[in-house]
Each structure stands twice: as C-alpha cells, then as structure tokens.
Amino acid sequence: MAHETIVLGCLQNQTEENRVAVIAGRSVGGAVQRNLAKRRLRSAYQHFQSALRQGNDIVLIARKPILEKDYQIFLAELKSLLEQAGLMKANVR
Fold first, then answer.
1. Sign of CA dihedral 72, 87, 58, 21
2. What is the tens place of the pLDDT at every residue in 22-58?
3. C-alpha torsion angle, residues 57, 91, 6, 45 (rounded to 10)
4. Are 29 and 67 in contact (CB under 8 A)?
5. pTM for this structure?
6. How far apart are CA 16 and CA 14, in angstroms?
7. What is the chain written as a DSSP string?
8. Measured between alpha carbons, how far is 21 from 75 in angstroms, rounded to an integer?
9. Could you tell me which of 19, 61, 54, 12 has the C-alpha nearest to residue 40?
10. In what order do the strands lie in the sheet with 19-24?
11. Would strands 56-62 and 19-24 be described as parallel, antiparallel, or unpaired?
C-alpha cells in the first residue's frame, strides 16, 4: 500500500511480535536526509506500536515528500495505511 510519503508492506510471520524494517533509498536524498526520513518513520511507528496486531513483518519505505510534510499530517497518513492493511486492533482511535 502506498501514500505520498510512505509505502507500507506487510506479511504475517511465525512469531508473537512484529518485526519492522525502515528503508529510505537514495531518491530521498543524501545520507543526512535519508537518516532523518528513517528517524521520522521509526518515531511515527512507535506512536502506533501498542495499537497494532502482533505477528507481522512490516516494511516502511520513505518517499522524498516525507522531509517536507508536517509531522501530524505524516502521522495521519501512516495511521491510514496501517488501518488499510488491517494491522490496527479493533476499537483503537
């Protein structure tokens, strides 16, 4: 699933917890910009970590607009992708 700033991929795994990979390719920018993009993705993921179903492998790929987006808008986009993927627990807001 994709959004303007994030691409999300997920697959069930055989463990009791989620495993997460955060990727920012060269299209995002230089090393400093890629590291910033990955830090933003990790921070946003941690915001929703307790509200996620367990037992999934999750890949979060940063796209270039992630560097310019307001953090609150970025959080809403990530939440939307997690809900579309069916990773959010029921009755979580």
1. positive
2. 999 999 999 999 999 999 999 999 999 999 999 999 9
3. -60
4. yes
5. 0.89
6. 7
7. -B-SSEEEEEEE-SSSS-EEEEEE-GGG-SHHHHHHHHHHHHHHHHHHGGGBPSSEEEEEEE-GGGGTS-HHHHHHHHHHHHHHTT-BPTT--
8. 17
9. 61
10. 6-12, 56-62, 19-24
11. parallel
What are the tens digits of pLDDT across the range 16-27?
Answer: 999 999 999 999
pLDDT value at 93 more than 60:
no
User: Residue 62 and residue 85: Cα distance in Å, rounded?
Assistant: 17
CATH architecture of the domain 6-84 equals: 2-Layer Sandwich (3.30)
Amino acid letter, residue 26: R
